């Protein structure tokens, strides 16, 4: 062990704490006069963009949660063994964890803005847990313990990755490794900080030829499946908004048989059960798709109705706002004029009785004028607000009737289609019952005569159902009842869902308008109370009080 390593081992490992963070921020902050002001004003943690905590023997990452605005963090040359407590730093663009003792890449999921990531000189043996870092551009994992080329293949998913360093890893010592990098990571522009030339990449692709093409073909198929699944999921989200989720694409049909083991067994009767099941599935799916189409069509109609309503009410509210603004501007203008006149009267220092009496009369008149102005303004504003409230209530009533009609239309159309589905189930059950009875008869005869090789390979479940006619009849009846129950439950779910949505929407609409109306009334009263308080403050000066009649003085002082 060399002297430097021995000294390092003798140091006490530390944990990032508030003192360490504060010292680093101040040390790396502005200098001179700007630095003095920076210290005087105090640290605003959310505004710190960069931080270096290097050569501090840090063992545990902690206490960085307050640095939410951090974009660059350097924690290199420490004793860090575990990546942790970084999930708050969601704005991080660059993270340097070089020269530490990290063995596993982990806990970086929330750092999806990360572009530059450095793990040079650690103990990492596998590249993993980086899937959410879709913006990753530069990755340095040199001098680690990566020994498997699968870690290289893992990086194929990072389409924005342009620069990579894996030098010093066991994997890099393999034959044609640089060619492998060039061929299997086509998004890279630089490897080990050297530009990859077009000719080099083409030569590498040719070298790995068929294996590379096979991988690309497999990935292409996987991506196609993933995209299809994602499209289906997105469609089901939309279908859910329309209350027809998992009805089309055979979802609903398959759900009828998924947990019905008896029916599954009966469908294994060979030629006896072929034909009518496929017909049932085909007809069922046609109606199911029709139901989905109806749901999506009705969803669009509801959205259009909501948009019309919101525009109508929004326009009315904007008109009221503009009218009220003009009324208030006019009020302020008249108020300022009255206050200016009051100030002139109050500043008159002439003590003669005639002048004083005239001043008192002027103050009373201006006071009455202002009260009258406040009352008129309050009356106009309240009248307009009440008018809007009443008109909005009328519009809400019309809106409620329109939406209720749409919902009723959707419910009626859905009920009609569910009725058709039940009819299909009844027909299917009749066909299945006929087929099962015929199969039971043939099976019984074959069992009694020891003939009929076609019955030797039937499943245990089917054999159990065929042991007795009563068992078979009960199984058919239970299966039919189960299918009808699922159909009824799905119909109830749709109807309950759309009616609950409507009830909640209308309730929120009423409550929202009532709350808005109350807030508006409070704002009008509060505004005018403030104006009256200003007049009160102006008249409460000694000069103003002396010039007012006794009854007004008493009223102001209450």
UniProtKB/TrEMBL annotation:
It is found in: Cytoplasm, Cytoskeleton, Flagellum axoneme. Gene3D superfamilies: Ribonuclease Inhibitor. It holds the Pfam family LRR_9. It comes from the Eukaryota. Keywords: Cell projection, Cilium, Coiled coil, Cytoplasm, Cytoskeleton, Flagellum, Leucine-rich repeat, Repeat. GO terms for cellular component: cilium. Coiled coil: none annotated. Its main location: cytoplasm. Belongs to the DRC3 family. Cilium-specific protein required for cilia structures. PANTHER family: DYNEIN REGULATORY COMPLEX SUBUNIT 3, PROTEIN PHOSPHATASE 1 REGULATORY SUBUNIT SDS22-RELATED. This is Dynein axonemal assembly factor 1 homolog. The lineage of its organism: Eukaryota, Metazoa, Ecdysozoa, Arthropoda, Hexapoda.
């Amino acid at each position: 062990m060399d002297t430097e390593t021995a000294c390092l081992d003798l140091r006490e490992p530390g944990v990032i704490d508030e003192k360490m963070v504060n010292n680093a921020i101040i040390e790396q902050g502005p200098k001179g006069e700007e630095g003095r002001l920076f210290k005087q004003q105090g640290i605003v943690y959310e505004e710190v963009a960069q931080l270096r905590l290097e050569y501090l023997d840090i063992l545990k990452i902690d206490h960085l949660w307050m640095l939410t605005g951090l974009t660059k963090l350097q924690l290199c040359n420490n004793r860090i063994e575990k990546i942790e407590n970084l999930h708050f730093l969601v704005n991080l663009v660059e993270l340097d964890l070089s020269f530490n003792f990290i063995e596993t890449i982990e806990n970086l999921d929330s750092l999806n803005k990360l572009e530059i990531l450095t793990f040079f000189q650690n103990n990492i043996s596998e590249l993993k847990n980086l899937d959410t870092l879709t913006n990753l551009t530069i990755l340095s994992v040199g001098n680690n313990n990566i020994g498997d080329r699968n870690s290289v293949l893992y990086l194929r998913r990072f389409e924005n990755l342009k620069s990579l360093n894996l030098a010093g890893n066991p994997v890099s010592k393999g034959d044609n490794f640089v060619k492998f990098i060039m061929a299997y990571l086509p998004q890279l522009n630089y490897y080990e900080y050297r530009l990859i030339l077009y000719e080099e990449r083409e030569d590498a692709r040719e070298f790995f030829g068929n294996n590379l093409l096979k991988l690309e073909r497999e990935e292409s198929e996987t991506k196609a499946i993933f995209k299809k699944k994602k499209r289906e999921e997105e469609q089901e989200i939309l279908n859910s908004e329309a209350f027809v989720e998992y009805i089309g694409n055979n979802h609903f049909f398959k759900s009828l048989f998924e947990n019905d083991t008896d029916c599954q067994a009966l469908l294994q009767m060979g030629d006896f059960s072929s034909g009518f099941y496929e017909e049932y599935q085909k007809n069922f799916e046609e109606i199911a798709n029709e139901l989905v189409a109806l749901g999506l069509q009705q969803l669009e109609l509801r959205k259009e109705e909501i948009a019309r309503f919101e525009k109508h009410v929004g326009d009315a509210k904007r008109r009221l706002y503009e009218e009220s603004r003009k009324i208030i501007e006019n009020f302020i203008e008249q108020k300022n004029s009255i206050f200016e006149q009051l100030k002139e009267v109050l500043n008159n220092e002439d003590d003669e009785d005639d002048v004083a009496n005239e001043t008192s009369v002027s103050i009373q008149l201006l006071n009455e004028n202002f009260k009258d102005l406040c009352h008129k303004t309050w009356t106009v504003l309240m009248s307009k607000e009440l008018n809007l409230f009443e008109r909005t209530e009328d519009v809400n009533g019309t809106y409620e009737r329109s939406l209720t009609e749409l919902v009723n239309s959707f419910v009626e159309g859905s009920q009609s289609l569910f009725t058709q589905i039940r009819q299909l189930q009844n027909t299917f059950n009749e066909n299945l019952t006929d087929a099962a009875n015929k199969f039971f008869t043939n099976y019984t005869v074959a069992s009694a005569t020891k003939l009929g090789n076609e019955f030797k390979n039937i499943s245990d479940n089917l054999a159990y159902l065929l042991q007795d006619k009563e068992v078979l009849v009960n199984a058919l009846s239970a299966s039919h009842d189960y299918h009808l129950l699922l159909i009824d439950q799905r119909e109830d779910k749709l109807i309950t869902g759309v009616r609950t949505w409507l009830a909640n929407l209308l309730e929120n609409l009423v409550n929202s308008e009532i709350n808005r109306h109350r807030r508006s009334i409070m704002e009008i009263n509060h505004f005018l109370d403030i104006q009256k308080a200003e007049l009160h403050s102006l008249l409460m000066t000694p000069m103003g009080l002396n010039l007012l009649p006794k009854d007004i003085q008493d009223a102001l002082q209450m």
